Amino acid sequence: MASERALKLGVAVGVAGLMALAIAADVLAPTPEPRRIVLCGLLALAPACLLWRCLHRLTPRMPHMESIAASAPETPRALADANLALDARLEHAPIALFRIEHASGAGAVAPLNASARRLLAPGRAIAPQELHQLLGAQAVGQRQLVSFNTERGAERALVAISALSVQGVAQRLAALMPVESQLEAEALNAWRELVQVLTHEIMNSLTPVASLSRTACGLLEEVQHDLQPDIHADLNTALDAIARRAASLADFVGSYRSLSTVPPAQPQRVLLEELFERLKALLEPQWQGRLTFSVEPASLEVMVDPGQLEQALINLLKNAAEAGTQAQVSARLSRGGRLRIEVADNGPGVPEALAAHIFTPFFSTKKQGRGIGLAMVRHLAHANGGTVRHARPVGAGARFILTF
Protein backbone atom coordinates (compact mmCIF):
# COMPACT_ATOMS: atom_id res chain seq x y z
CA MET A 1 0.00 0.00 0.00
CA ALA A 2 2.77 2.45 0.81
CA SER A 3 4.46 1.72 -2.52
CA GLU A 4 1.26 2.42 -4.45
CA ARG A 5 0.75 5.73 -2.66
CA ALA A 6 4.34 6.75 -3.35
CA LEU A 7 3.88 5.88 -7.03
CA LYS A 8 0.70 7.92 -7.27
CA LEU A 9 2.37 10.84 -5.51
CA GLY A 10 5.33 10.73 -7.87
CA VAL A 11 3.16 10.60 -10.98
CA ALA A 12 1.04 13.49 -9.72
CA VAL A 13 4.11 15.61 -8.97
CA GLY A 14 5.56 14.84 -12.36
CA VAL A 15 2.40 15.76 -14.19
CA ALA A 16 2.13 18.95 -12.13
CA GLY A 17 5.70 19.86 -13.05
CA LEU A 18 5.10 19.29 -16.73
CA MET A 19 1.92 21.32 -16.57
CA ALA A 20 3.76 24.14 -14.79
CA LEU A 21 6.45 24.05 -17.44
CA ALA A 22 3.87 24.20 -20.20
CA ILE A 23 2.00 27.06 -18.56
CA ALA A 24 5.20 29.00 -18.02
CA ALA A 25 6.24 28.51 -21.58
CA ASP A 26 2.82 29.54 -22.79
CA VAL A 27 2.66 32.62 -20.56
CA LEU A 28 6.13 33.81 -21.25
CA ALA A 29 5.82 33.31 -25.00
CA PRO A 30 5.48 34.73 -27.76
CA THR A 31 9.22 35.07 -28.18
CA PRO A 32 11.43 32.28 -26.79
CA GLU A 33 14.10 34.27 -25.05
CA PRO A 34 16.88 32.51 -23.07
CA ARG A 35 15.72 34.22 -19.89
CA ARG A 36 12.29 32.63 -20.23
CA ILE A 37 13.72 29.21 -20.94
CA VAL A 38 15.86 29.36 -17.77
CA LEU A 39 12.88 30.47 -15.72
CA CYS A 40 10.82 27.56 -16.96
CA GLY A 41 13.60 25.15 -16.16
CA LEU A 42 13.82 26.45 -12.60
CA LEU A 43 10.07 26.05 -12.18
CA ALA A 44 10.30 22.39 -13.30
CA LEU A 45 13.38 21.53 -11.19
CA ALA A 46 11.58 21.08 -7.84
CA PRO A 47 8.90 18.66 -9.18
CA ALA A 48 11.61 16.70 -11.01
CA CYS A 49 13.67 16.24 -7.81
CA LEU A 50 10.60 15.10 -5.92
CA LEU A 51 9.78 12.64 -8.69
CA TRP A 52 13.33 11.20 -8.62
CA ARG A 53 13.22 10.66 -4.85
CA CYS A 54 9.88 8.85 -5.11
CA LEU A 55 11.20 6.57 -7.83
CA HIS A 56 14.35 5.88 -5.79
CA ARG A 57 12.23 4.76 -2.84
CA LEU A 58 10.32 2.44 -5.12
CA THR A 59 13.54 0.73 -6.30
CA PRO A 60 13.93 -2.70 -4.56
CA ARG A 61 17.11 -3.05 -2.53
CA MET A 62 19.07 -6.34 -2.83
CA PRO A 63 20.49 -7.54 0.54
CA HIS A 64 24.09 -8.76 0.85
CA MET A 65 24.72 -12.47 0.32
CA GLU A 66 26.29 -12.74 3.77
CA SER A 67 23.13 -11.50 5.48
CA ILE A 68 21.04 -13.91 3.41
CA ALA A 69 23.20 -16.84 4.44
CA ALA A 70 23.12 -15.80 8.09
CA SER A 71 19.38 -15.27 8.26
CA ALA A 72 18.34 -18.20 6.09
CA PRO A 73 16.78 -21.03 8.13
CA GLU A 74 18.55 -24.41 8.25
CA THR A 75 17.41 -26.90 5.70
CA PRO A 76 15.64 -30.09 6.82
CA ARG A 77 18.71 -32.09 5.72
CA ALA A 78 21.01 -30.00 7.95
CA LEU A 79 18.65 -30.38 10.91
CA ALA A 80 18.50 -34.13 10.39
CA ASP A 81 22.30 -34.38 10.23
CA ALA A 82 22.65 -32.35 13.43
CA ASN A 83 20.16 -34.62 15.22
CA LEU A 84 21.99 -37.73 14.05
CA ALA A 85 25.32 -36.34 15.26
CA LEU A 86 23.84 -35.52 18.66
CA ASP A 87 22.27 -38.98 18.95
CA ALA A 88 25.61 -40.61 18.07
CA ARG A 89 27.43 -38.62 20.78
CA LEU A 90 24.86 -39.56 23.40
CA GLU A 91 24.78 -43.20 22.29
CA HIS A 92 28.53 -43.64 22.67
CA ALA A 93 29.04 -41.46 25.75
CA PRO A 94 31.31 -43.15 28.33
CA ILE A 95 28.72 -42.72 31.09
CA ALA A 96 25.34 -44.41 31.48
CA LEU A 97 22.42 -42.00 30.91
CA PHE A 98 18.89 -42.69 32.19
CA ARG A 99 15.62 -40.79 31.85
CA ILE A 100 13.35 -40.57 34.90
CA GLU A 101 9.81 -39.64 33.90
CA HIS A 102 8.74 -37.48 36.84
CA ALA A 103 10.56 -34.39 38.05
CA SER A 104 10.41 -35.60 41.67
CA GLY A 105 9.73 -38.82 43.49
CA ALA A 106 9.72 -42.29 41.96
CA GLY A 107 9.15 -42.52 38.23
CA ALA A 108 9.69 -44.84 35.30
CA VAL A 109 13.40 -45.17 34.48
CA ALA A 110 14.56 -45.85 30.92
CA PRO A 111 18.11 -46.17 29.50
CA LEU A 112 19.14 -43.53 26.96
CA ASN A 113 22.43 -44.86 25.54
CA ALA A 114 24.53 -47.99 25.00
CA SER A 115 26.38 -47.69 28.33
CA ALA A 116 23.07 -47.70 30.22
CA ARG A 117 21.73 -50.68 28.28
CA ARG A 118 24.94 -52.67 28.89
CA LEU A 119 24.66 -51.94 32.60
CA LEU A 120 21.15 -53.44 32.68
CA ALA A 121 21.96 -56.37 30.38
CA PRO A 122 22.38 -59.93 31.71
CA GLY A 123 25.81 -60.36 33.21
CA ARG A 124 25.92 -56.94 34.89
CA ALA A 125 23.30 -55.66 37.35
CA ILE A 126 21.68 -58.56 39.20
CA ALA A 127 18.45 -56.66 39.96
CA PRO A 128 17.79 -53.88 37.37
CA GLN A 129 14.60 -52.87 39.17
CA GLU A 130 16.57 -52.16 42.36
CA LEU A 131 18.97 -50.01 40.34
CA HIS A 132 15.98 -48.11 38.90
CA GLN A 133 14.68 -47.45 42.40
CA LEU A 134 18.11 -46.35 43.53
CA LEU A 135 18.33 -43.80 40.70
CA GLY A 136 14.79 -42.55 41.25
CA ALA A 137 15.50 -41.88 44.93
CA GLN A 138 18.45 -39.54 44.24
CA ALA A 139 18.03 -35.80 44.77
CA VAL A 140 18.39 -33.29 41.95
CA GLY A 141 21.62 -31.29 41.84
CA GLN A 142 23.67 -33.59 44.07
CA ARG A 143 26.44 -36.08 43.33
CA GLN A 144 26.27 -39.29 45.29
CA LEU A 145 28.44 -42.39 45.46
CA VAL A 146 26.14 -45.43 45.31
CA SER A 147 26.68 -49.18 45.28
CA PHE A 148 24.75 -51.86 43.40
CA ASN A 149 25.16 -55.60 42.97
CA THR A 150 26.33 -57.15 39.72
CA GLU A 151 27.19 -60.71 38.75
CA ARG A 152 30.84 -59.74 39.22
CA GLY A 153 30.20 -58.45 42.73
CA ALA A 154 29.32 -55.10 44.26
CA GLU A 155 30.23 -52.06 42.19
CA ARG A 156 30.32 -48.42 43.16
CA ALA A 157 29.30 -45.59 40.86
CA LEU A 158 28.97 -41.81 40.93
CA VAL A 159 25.44 -40.54 40.24
CA ALA A 160 24.40 -37.02 39.22
CA ILE A 161 20.75 -35.99 38.68
CA SER A 162 19.52 -32.93 36.76
CA ALA A 163 15.97 -31.69 36.12
CA LEU A 164 14.73 -30.53 32.71
CA SER A 165 11.59 -30.08 30.66
CA VAL A 166 11.21 -31.67 27.23
CA GLN A 167 8.25 -30.49 25.11
CA GLY A 168 6.55 -29.25 28.24
CA VAL A 169 7.01 -32.52 30.16
CA ALA A 170 9.08 -32.33 33.37
CA GLN A 171 11.59 -35.14 33.85
CA ARG A 172 15.01 -35.90 35.29
CA LEU A 173 18.25 -37.03 33.67
CA ALA A 174 20.51 -39.42 35.61
CA ALA A 175 24.19 -39.85 34.76
CA LEU A 176 25.79 -42.96 36.25
CA MET A 177 29.57 -43.47 36.04
CA PRO A 178 31.01 -46.72 37.48
CA VAL A 179 34.19 -45.91 39.41
CA GLU A 180 34.92 -49.22 41.15
CA SER A 181 38.06 -49.94 39.12
CA GLN A 182 39.42 -46.43 39.65
CA LEU A 183 38.74 -46.55 43.40
CA GLU A 184 40.39 -49.96 43.66
CA ALA A 185 43.45 -48.72 41.77
CA GLU A 186 43.77 -45.73 44.11
CA ALA A 187 43.29 -47.93 47.17
CA LEU A 188 45.94 -50.35 45.91
CA ASN A 189 48.44 -47.55 45.38
CA ALA A 190 47.73 -46.15 48.86
CA TRP A 191 48.10 -49.57 50.51
CA ARG A 192 51.27 -50.31 48.58
CA GLU A 193 52.86 -47.05 49.69
CA LEU A 194 51.72 -47.61 53.30
CA VAL A 195 53.05 -51.17 53.38
CA GLN A 196 56.34 -50.05 51.89
CA VAL A 197 56.82 -47.37 54.56
CA LEU A 198 55.75 -49.65 57.43
CA THR A 199 57.89 -52.58 56.39
CA HIS A 200 60.89 -50.32 55.92
CA GLU A 201 60.56 -48.76 59.37
CA ILE A 202 59.81 -52.05 61.12
CA MET A 203 62.74 -53.82 59.48
CA ASN A 204 65.05 -50.98 60.48
CA SER A 205 64.11 -51.63 64.12
CA LEU A 206 64.00 -55.41 63.94
CA THR A 207 67.43 -55.90 62.38
CA PRO A 208 69.45 -54.56 65.35
CA VAL A 209 67.15 -56.35 67.85
CA ALA A 210 67.74 -59.71 66.16
CA SER A 211 71.48 -59.02 65.87
CA LEU A 212 71.83 -57.95 69.52
CA SER A 213 69.86 -60.94 70.78
CA ARG A 214 72.17 -63.34 68.96
CA THR A 215 75.22 -61.49 70.30
CA ALA A 216 73.81 -61.59 73.82
CA CYS A 217 73.24 -65.35 73.57
CA GLY A 218 76.89 -65.81 72.59
CA LEU A 219 78.11 -63.67 75.47
CA LEU A 220 75.87 -65.54 77.88
CA GLU A 221 77.52 -68.80 76.91
CA GLU A 222 80.93 -67.31 77.63
CA VAL A 223 80.01 -66.20 81.18
CA GLN A 224 77.70 -69.04 82.14
CA HIS A 225 80.23 -70.37 84.69
CA ASP A 226 80.09 -66.99 86.51
CA LEU A 227 76.31 -67.07 86.88
CA GLN A 228 74.01 -69.12 88.98
CA PRO A 229 72.28 -71.88 86.99
CA ASP A 230 68.79 -70.49 87.44
CA ILE A 231 69.82 -66.96 86.39
CA HIS A 232 71.63 -68.36 83.38
CA ALA A 233 68.57 -70.39 82.38
CA ASP A 234 66.24 -67.38 82.72
CA LEU A 235 68.51 -65.15 80.66
CA ASN A 236 68.95 -67.81 78.01
CA THR A 237 65.19 -68.31 77.76
CA ALA A 238 64.55 -64.56 77.51
CA LEU A 239 67.18 -63.97 74.85
CA ASP A 240 66.05 -66.99 72.89
CA ALA A 241 62.44 -65.72 72.95
CA ILE A 242 63.56 -62.29 71.76
CA ALA A 243 65.57 -63.83 68.91
CA ARG A 244 62.71 -66.11 67.84
CA ARG A 245 60.09 -63.37 67.90
CA ALA A 246 62.37 -61.00 66.02
CA ALA A 247 62.97 -63.64 63.34
CA SER A 248 59.23 -64.45 63.13
CA LEU A 249 58.29 -60.79 62.88
CA ALA A 250 60.93 -60.22 60.22
CA ASP A 251 59.47 -63.09 58.20
CA PHE A 252 55.97 -61.68 58.72
CA VAL A 253 57.03 -58.21 57.55
CA GLY A 254 58.93 -59.73 54.63
CA SER A 255 55.73 -61.32 53.34
CA TYR A 256 54.08 -57.89 53.25
CA ARG A 257 57.11 -56.39 51.61
CA SER A 258 56.49 -58.77 48.70
CA LEU A 259 53.10 -57.10 48.25
CA SER A 260 54.72 -53.74 47.56
CA THR A 261 57.55 -55.09 45.40
CA VAL A 262 55.69 -57.20 42.83
CA PRO A 263 57.62 -56.95 39.55
CA PRO A 264 55.83 -55.35 36.58
CA ALA A 265 53.68 -57.71 34.55
CA GLN A 266 55.18 -59.19 31.37
CA PRO A 267 52.05 -59.91 29.31
CA GLN A 268 52.04 -62.49 26.57
CA ARG A 269 49.45 -64.52 24.71
CA VAL A 270 48.40 -67.39 26.98
CA LEU A 271 46.24 -70.37 26.02
CA LEU A 272 44.04 -70.87 29.09
CA GLU A 273 43.61 -74.59 28.54
CA GLU A 274 47.37 -75.10 28.81
CA LEU A 275 47.61 -72.86 31.89
CA PHE A 276 44.81 -74.83 33.58
CA GLU A 277 46.56 -78.09 32.77
CA ARG A 278 49.70 -76.87 34.54
CA LEU A 279 47.69 -75.81 37.58
CA LYS A 280 45.85 -79.13 37.68
CA ALA A 281 49.14 -81.07 37.61
CA LEU A 282 50.53 -78.87 40.40
CA LEU A 283 47.50 -79.04 42.71
CA GLU A 284 46.18 -82.53 42.03
CA PRO A 285 48.08 -84.17 44.94
CA GLN A 286 46.36 -81.78 47.36
CA TRP A 287 42.86 -81.97 45.89
CA GLN A 288 42.84 -85.63 44.76
CA GLY A 289 40.26 -85.26 42.02
CA ARG A 290 38.06 -82.73 43.83
CA LEU A 291 39.27 -79.82 41.69
CA THR A 292 37.88 -79.36 38.16
CA PHE A 293 38.82 -76.96 35.34
CA SER A 294 36.81 -75.96 32.28
CA VAL A 295 37.42 -73.60 29.36
CA GLU A 296 34.77 -72.58 26.83
CA PRO A 297 35.81 -72.50 24.01
CA ALA A 298 39.00 -74.57 24.28
CA SER A 299 40.89 -72.06 22.09
CA LEU A 300 40.33 -69.20 24.56
CA GLU A 301 43.41 -66.97 24.98
CA VAL A 302 44.30 -63.92 27.05
CA MET A 303 47.14 -61.38 27.15
CA VAL A 304 48.52 -61.61 30.71
CA ASP A 305 51.64 -62.47 32.63
CA PRO A 306 51.21 -66.27 32.95
CA GLY A 307 53.19 -66.54 36.17
CA GLN A 308 51.17 -63.79 37.89
CA LEU A 309 47.82 -65.22 36.74
CA GLU A 310 48.86 -68.65 38.02
CA GLN A 311 49.84 -67.15 41.38
CA ALA A 312 46.49 -65.36 41.68
CA LEU A 313 44.58 -68.59 40.97
CA ILE A 314 46.79 -70.56 43.40
CA ASN A 315 46.00 -68.05 46.17
CA LEU A 316 42.26 -68.35 45.49
CA LEU A 317 42.41 -72.15 45.41
CA LYS A 318 44.43 -72.19 48.64
CA ASN A 319 41.60 -70.32 50.35
CA ALA A 320 39.09 -72.71 48.74
CA ALA A 321 41.01 -75.72 50.07
CA GLU A 322 40.90 -74.31 53.60
CA ALA A 323 37.17 -73.59 53.35
CA GLY A 324 35.67 -76.52 51.42
CA THR A 325 36.20 -79.94 49.91
CA GLN A 326 35.50 -79.19 46.24
CA ALA A 327 36.31 -76.35 43.86
CA GLN A 328 35.69 -75.45 40.24
CA VAL A 329 37.64 -73.11 37.98
CA SER A 330 35.91 -72.05 34.75
CA ALA A 331 36.78 -69.60 31.98
CA ARG A 332 34.52 -68.16 29.30
CA LEU A 333 33.78 -64.95 27.44
CA SER A 334 31.20 -62.66 28.98
CA ARG A 335 29.13 -59.98 27.29
CA GLY A 336 31.31 -57.37 25.65
CA GLY A 337 34.02 -59.91 24.79
CA ARG A 338 35.72 -59.78 28.21
CA LEU A 339 37.32 -62.86 29.74
CA ARG A 340 35.67 -64.16 32.90
CA ILE A 341 37.48 -66.65 35.15
CA GLU A 342 35.40 -67.95 38.04
CA VAL A 343 36.72 -69.81 41.12
CA ALA A 344 34.01 -71.36 43.30
CA ASP A 345 34.04 -73.73 46.29
CA ASN A 346 31.49 -75.50 48.48
CA GLY A 347 32.64 -74.07 51.81
CA PRO A 348 30.70 -71.89 54.24
CA GLY A 349 31.29 -68.78 52.13
CA VAL A 350 32.16 -65.23 53.13
CA PRO A 351 29.92 -63.55 55.72
CA GLU A 352 28.03 -60.61 54.27
CA ALA A 353 29.43 -58.24 56.90
CA LEU A 354 33.03 -59.11 55.98
CA ALA A 355 32.71 -59.17 52.18
CA ALA A 356 33.77 -55.53 51.82
CA HIS A 357 37.06 -56.10 53.71
CA ILE A 358 38.43 -59.40 52.44
CA PHE A 359 40.77 -57.78 49.89
CA THR A 360 42.20 -55.34 52.43
CA PRO A 361 45.83 -55.99 53.44
CA PHE A 362 46.31 -57.15 57.08
CA PHE A 363 42.65 -58.24 57.28
CA SER A 364 42.06 -61.93 57.97
CA THR A 365 39.37 -64.05 59.60
CA LYS A 366 41.86 -66.86 60.37
CA LYS A 367 43.75 -67.11 63.62
CA GLN A 368 47.07 -67.59 61.88
CA GLY A 369 46.19 -65.58 58.77
CA ARG A 370 48.28 -62.65 57.61
CA GLY A 371 45.70 -61.03 55.37
CA ILE A 372 47.90 -61.04 52.30
CA GLY A 373 46.51 -63.79 50.05
CA LEU A 374 43.47 -62.00 48.61
CA ALA A 375 45.25 -58.64 48.68
CA MET A 376 47.92 -60.18 46.46
CA VAL A 377 45.23 -61.59 44.13
CA ARG A 378 43.73 -58.12 43.67
CA HIS A 379 47.16 -56.60 43.13
CA LEU A 380 48.09 -59.19 40.48
CA ALA A 381 44.73 -58.81 38.72
CA HIS A 382 45.08 -55.03 38.47
CA ALA A 383 48.71 -55.32 37.37
CA ASN A 384 47.47 -57.32 34.36
CA GLY A 385 44.63 -54.96 33.47
CA GLY A 386 41.88 -56.95 35.19
CA THR A 387 39.69 -56.89 38.27
CA VAL A 388 38.67 -59.41 40.93
CA ARG A 389 35.34 -59.43 42.76
CA HIS A 390 33.71 -61.53 45.42
CA ALA A 391 30.39 -62.43 43.82
CA ARG A 392 27.24 -63.48 45.58
CA PRO A 393 27.21 -67.30 45.37
CA VAL A 394 24.41 -69.10 43.57
CA GLY A 395 24.28 -71.74 46.32
CA ALA A 396 26.68 -72.46 49.16
CA GLY A 397 30.34 -71.55 49.23
CA ALA A 398 32.39 -68.62 48.01
CA ARG A 399 32.70 -67.36 44.45
CA PHE A 400 35.44 -65.11 43.07
CA ILE A 401 35.42 -63.71 39.54
CA LEU A 402 38.49 -62.45 37.67
CA THR A 403 37.70 -60.28 34.66
CA PHE A 404 40.19 -59.22 31.95
Automatic annotation (TrEMBL):
<dbReference type="Pfam" id="PF02518">
    <property type="entry name" value="HATPase_c"/>
</dbReference>
<dbReference type="InterPro" id="IPR036890">
    <property type="entry name" value="HATPase_C_sf"/>
</dbReference>
<keyword id="KW-0547">Nucleotide-binding</keyword>
<keyword id="KW-0902">Two-component regulatory system</keyword>
<feature type="domain" description="Histidine kinase">
    <location>
        <begin position="197"/>
        <end position="404"/>
    </location>
</feature>
<dbReference type="InterPro" id="IPR005467">
    <property type="entry name" value="His_kinase_dom"/>
</dbReference>
<protein>
    <recommendedName>
        <fullName>histidine kinase</fullName>
        <ecNumber>2.7.13.3</ecNumber>
    </recommendedName>
</protein>
<keyword id="KW-0418">Kinase</keyword>
<keyword id="KW-0808">Transferase</keyword>
<dbReference type="GO" id="GO:0005524">
    <property type="term" value="F:ATP binding"/>
</dbReference>
<keyword id="KW-0067">ATP-binding</keyword>
<dbReference type="InterPro" id="IPR003594">
    <property type="entry name" value="HATPase_dom"/>
</dbReference>
<dbReference type="InterPro" id="IPR004358">
    <property type="entry name" value="Sig_transdc_His_kin-like_C"/>
</dbReference>
